[in-house]
Amino acid sequence: FTYVGDGRNNVANALMQGAAIMGMNFHLVCPKELNPTDELLSRCGRIASENGGNILITDDIDKGVKDSDVI
C-alpha cells in the first residue's frame, strides 16, 4: 500500500513499522525534505526484508503508487 504525505509524522511512521512487521510492501511518497529519519528507514527496511516485505521511499508519485492496492 502507499501513503502520500509527510513522511516524518507519526501516522506515516506507524504505518511503515506495521507494514515491515507484517511483511507487507509499503510505499511512502513525500518530498525528500520530509523523509523519515535514516535510523527508522534502516530499521524498517531490515525488518521488512526479514519478513518478506519491502519499503520504498520516493518523491515520484507515479513510481510510488504503481502496483498499490490501497493509497
TrEMBL record:
GO:BP terms for this protein? citrulline biosynthetic process; L-arginine biosynthetic process via ornithine
Mind listing the GO molecular function terms for this protein?
Answer: amino acid binding; ornithine carbamoyltransferase activity
A Pfam family cross-referenced in the UniProt record is OTCace
Q: Give all residue intervals belonging to the Aspartate/ornithine carbamoyltransferase Asp/Orn-binding domain.
A: 2-71
Q: Which UniProt keywords apply?
A: Transferase
* Presence of keyword Iron-sulfur: no
Protein name from the UniProt record:
Ornithine carbamoyltransferase subunit F
